[in-house]
Each structure stands twice: as C-alpha cells, then as structure tokens.
Amino acid sequence: MNIEGSIIMITGASSGIGAATARAASQAGARLVLLARREERIAKYAGELGNALAMRCDVTDKDQVAVAIRRAEDTYGRVDALINNAGQGLEASIEDIEIDDFKDILALNLVAPLIMMQAVLPLMRAQGGGSIVNVSSGVTFYPRPHSGAYNSAKAGLNMLSSVARAELADQGIVVSTMLPFVTATEFNDALKAGSKTQEDEEDATFAHTPDRVADRILDLIRSGDEQADLVPRRFGGSLEE
Ligand SMILES: NC(=O)c1ccc[n+]([C@@H]2O[C@H](COP(=O)([O-])OP(=O)(O)OC[C@H]3O[C@@H](n4cnc5c(N)ncnc54)[C@H](OP(=O)(O)O)[C@@H]3O)[C@@H](O)[C@H]2O)c1
Predict the structure, then answer these.
(1) Where does 7-228 sit in CATH, by number?
(2) Which of 67, 71, 114, 160 is the most buried (most CB within 10 A)?
C-alpha cells in the first residue's frame, strides 16, 4: 500500500513507537488519526504534524473505539491502515502475577487489537481494502523469566494476527505483525506491575530507537509482508548484529 495520501490510524500514539510512527508516516505524506488516553499529548503532536486528528480513546473500551472509528470516517471518509500499537508490560514471576493485572494485560495487548480490528473491518471492506499492522514483541521468541503475562498476551496476538491475515486475504485487507525488540521508549517506566530486571538493564545497552521501529512498521504497510522483526539472531530473530 502507498503511504502517501493514505489515512493511517495509530493507537498508543502519545509516546514511543506510536509517536515515532506518526512522525514518519506524516513525513511520508499520510494523514493521521492518533489515539491514546493522554489527550493533551496527542493533541500537541497532531498540531505539530498538521494533517492529523487526535482523539482520546481507551482502546480496551469497545464504545470509545466505535466512536473513534466513526469520527475518523466522518473526517476522512476512510481508514487505509490501522496500526495496533498500544501496549503495556508487566514484570512478575508466574507465582506472583496478580490475576487482575494479568487480565488487564490481556485486555490491552490481546483483546484491544481484536476490538480495533472488528471496528475497522466494515469500513475497510466497504472502501475495498486496507492494511492492519499488529505490534507484538520479539520477547515472544523465547520464554523470558518474569515476562509470563505480557509474553502470553503478545504470543496470543501473533496468532490472532496470523488468523486475521488468512481470513481477510481475499478481501483486500492485509494483516501483518511487527515484532520489535528492546526499544528506548517509556515502556519500562509504564509497567503494569514489577520493575526492570537486571536482564532488562543489559538489554537496554542495545535498545533500538523508536524511529527504527517506525520505519519497519511503514515498510510492512508498503510491502504487506506477513511479519517483520528487529530481534537479534541470538534471541531467535532475524537481525544480524
Ligand atoms: N519498548 C520496547 O522495548 C518494546 C519492545 C517490543 C514491543 N513493544 C511494543 O510496542 C508498542 C509500543 O510501546 P512503546 O515501547 O512505544 O511504549 P510506550 O512509550 O509506553 O507507549 C505505549 C503507548 O500505549 C498507549 N496506551 C496504553 N494503554 C492504553 C489504552 N488503554 N488505550 C489507548 N492507548 C493506550 C500509551 O498511551 P496513553 O498512556 O496516553 O494511553 C502509549 O502511547 C507496545 O505494544 C509494546 O508492547 C515495545
């Protein structure tokens, strides 16, 4: 799909990878719909970028998502690409994960992308096609201790994304999965529970920039490839270090 002139909706656009993807897509000539809960931030970004609509939206809330899709349609008439990027981590051992936290992590990282896809699909079908990128994580390539809640949610997202791709292929709707690795964002400061481990600190010595991930996400939209990863080979990915 061509980025130039397209309408791209990005969830979790108020920081990190989402904000970087908004910048990159804007520079490539897209018009944007920015979603997040921190409205002042996305409103500011939208003002800086121009050609962008900012909407407060908790993506775990079906009603708020429905309103966001309707407003995007009313404003632009279409949504060519959806980037399901909003996410949150949790660091705890299997024994210590609070069940309510586990449910919240699933709700945001796995259920919300389904809510978003279900909400945008009728519009994409009516307009004759579209592109969806689900942002998962390279941690799904290995059973990292203390990643149980987040890793399970993202592993579920990988399969949800693959099934959606298979189901929608003949409708002109292309679903892809992006698997970033450690990226320098607010992610580790915004954990649902727990805190950075020694391993995180070591990983952080080679953290990617959010701009690098953003470029790969836009490449996925352009190519329609099934997935892309920024995971070093020694962690099971395809990235030569
Ligand atoms: N950073 C990494 O090392 C890394 C590695 C692999 C994958 N990822 C994935 O990359 C994606 C982006 O993460 P990031 O690293 O850019 O982290 P980040 O800077 O913490 O950004 C997370 C974004 O998600 C949004 N968000 C959280 N809960 C939300 C909700 N209920 N409704 C709407 N938006 C919500 C936040 O906005 P508000 O708080 O304003 O709502 C924020 O914009 C996530 O899916 C993450 O799992 C990150």
Answers:
(1) 3.40.50.720
(2) 160
